[in-house]
Amino acid sequence: MLLEDRLGDHRQDVGHGGAKLTRLVALVASGLLLWWLAMADPAKRRATYADVLNAPPNTVAEILFGVLHTHPRPAIAHARAASALGIKLGGPFDFGSGGPGGWIFLDEPELHLGPDPDVVVPDLAGWRRDRMPSLPASAAITTAPDWACEVLSPRTQATDRSDKMDIFAREGVGHLWLVDPIARTLESYELEQNRWVRLGSWRGEATVRAKPFDAVELELGALWIQATA
């Protein structure tokens, strides 16, 4: 082989190597750029529990499908509906006063659900005692509840009706209630084959027997703030 031919082959090999190196550098650079963008913009990365801890004070922070959601503490009508419902259900179903007992209720428990956990804070949640005989000592609970209740507000109802319902279904929560203190309504859902089936909807001053607490009547009027003269 002539010297010129050998030099030509060598230059060709160097050219191919240089092209590969250029492509490799471009891939690394693009990967670093994507990583930087994800870290710079929290919306482009999966939120972690550190984001929950660093949320602004006086807010409720949740991670739903990897996205951090924060919203202010509830308004008075919202808080009243949640508190009154807990009182009405707690006597007969948690403490067994005038009812069958067998449940544990918590207001705004922090739930860590799933293998890469979503952090979900329902307004109320209940566990059957045969599934959770006692409360854990930790701040968060990893056992999905048997019943959850969301008290809707204009700011949170879209998320309550979408992401949170989907997470509760994924985790096998058997029953879900949606309470709207503005419209003064209660919706009851039951999970069947991983899908929510609406069992009923009531409003105003109705007297309700809604699963899974249909053993006792619930007067909806007790949940609403009454207008003053």
Tell me about this structure:
There is one protein chain. The chain is α+β, with helices and mostly antiparallel strands and about 230 residues long. It has two domains: about 5-45; about 60-225, tt1808, chain A, CATH 3.90.1570. It is about 35% helix and about 30% strand. The chain is built from four helices and 13 strands. It has helices spanning about 5-40, 50-55, 75-95, 155-170, and strands at about 60-65, 65-70, 105, 110-115, 120, 125-130, 140, 145-150, 175-180, 185-190, 195-205, 205-210, 220. The strands form four sheets. A six-stranded mixed sheet has the order 3-6-8-9-10-11, sandwiched between helices. A hairpin with a 4-residue loop joins strand 9 and strand 10. The longest helix is centred in the first third of the chain and has 38 residues, at about 5-40. Mean pLDDT is about 85; it is low at about 30-40.
**What's the CATH architecture of the largest domain?**
Alpha-Beta Complex
Number of domains: 2
- The gross shape turns out to be globular
What is the C-level CATH assignment of the largest domain? Alpha Beta
CATH topology of the largest domain: tt1808, chain A
Low-confidence stretches: 32-40
In sequence order, what are the helices and strands, one letter per element?
A: HHEEHEEEEEEHEEEEE
Give me the number of helical elements: 4
Number of strands: 13
Rg, alpha carbons: 27 Å
The chain-level structural class is alpha+beta
Helix content: 25-40%
What amount of the residues lies in strands?
Answer: 25-35%
- Please give the order of strands in the largest beta sheet: 3-6-8-9-10-11
Give a quick account of the main beta sheet: strands, pairing sense, barrel closure. Answer: 6 strands, mixed
The name of the CATH superfamily of the largest domain reads tt1808, chain A
Euclidean distance between termini CA atoms? 107 Å
